[in-house]
């Protein structure tokens, strides 16, 4: 999804952008579009300063102010609900690790394995019986290769989601 360049609100179907001759890049929500357009009409250019969000370190025109532990934090719309008590570590910015693999990912991995088996069976059973067997061998090999690539990619993504990085995975876990 696209987010607003002014305040980082997630935009749905309705996105606003300025005309090209204004030279203001990005997509905006309606309120940011009105405020930036009014500033541009008043001054002939944008005089609003871009400020950096305290948690994601991206620049936006309009940030929200939150107070935690008697300290002021300027945050975008996405980061406004983050807890700044653990801001020294990157764990405060990362979502918690899920306990299970998402169902859709498991379905894609199963489809990849099925494609591998189907390609192998096609090469062994169907291709020798056809007239132009080299074409059928190529088709079966492509099916097996695509299935293997899909299954391997899903396993890598699963390891990332479950919090296992290549440094932490040992040979005992792979068996």
Give a brief outline of the structure.
About 40% of the residues lie in helices and about 10% in strands.
What's the arrangement of secondary structure elements?
Elements: H1 30-43, E1 51-52, E2 59-60, E3 64-68, E4 71-75, H2 103-126, H3 133-161, H4 171-174
Antiparallel strand pairs: 1-2, 3-4
Helix pairs in contact: 2-3
Q: Any overview of this molecule?
A:
With 175 residues, the chain is mainly alpha-helical. It has 2 domains: 20-92, no CATH class; 103-174. It contains 4 helices and 4 strands, in the order αββββααα. It has helices at residues 30-43, 103-126, 133-161, 171-174, and strands at 51-52, 59-60, 64-68, 71-75. Strands 1-2 form a two-stranded antiparallel sheet. Strands 3-4 form a two-stranded antiparallel sheet. The chain is elongated and about 80 Å long.
Tally of strands: 4
Distance between the termini: 39 Å
The major beta sheet can be summarized as: 2 strands, antiparallel
Strand content: 5-15%
Number of domains: 2
Strand order of the largest sheet: 1-2
The radius of gyration is 26 Å
Average predicted confidence as pLDDT: 76
Helix and strand content put the structural class at mainly alpha
User: What is the N-to-C order of secondary-structure elements (H for helix, E for strand)?
Assistant: HEEEEHHH
Q: In percent, how helical is the residue content?
A: 40-55%
Highlighted features:
two-stranded antiparallel ribbon, 4 helices, two-stranded antiparallel sheet, elongated, 2 domains, single chain, 175 residues, mainly alpha
């Amino acid at each position: 999804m696209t987010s607003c360049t002014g305040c980082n609100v997630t935009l749905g179907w309705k996105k606003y952008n300025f005309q090209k001759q204004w030279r203001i890049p990005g997509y905006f929500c309606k309120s940011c579009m009105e405020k930036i357009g009014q500033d541009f009409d008043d001054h002939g250019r944008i005089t609003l300063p871009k400020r950096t969000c305290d948690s994601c370190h991206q620049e936006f025109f309009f940030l929200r102010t939150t107070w935690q532990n008697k300290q002021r934090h300027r945050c975008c719309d996405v980061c406004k609900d983050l807890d700044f008590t653990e801001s020294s570590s990157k764990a405060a910015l990362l979502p918690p690790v899920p306990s299970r693999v998402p169902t859709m990912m498991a379905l894609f991995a199963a489809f990849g394995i099925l494609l591998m088996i189907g390609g192998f069976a096609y090469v062994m059973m169907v291709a020798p019986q056809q007239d132009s067997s080299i074409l059928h061998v190529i088709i079966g090999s492509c099916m097996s290769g695509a299935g293997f690539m899909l299954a391997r990619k899903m396993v890598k993504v699963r390891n990332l989601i479950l919090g296992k990085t290549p440094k932490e995975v040992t040979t005992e876990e792979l068996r």
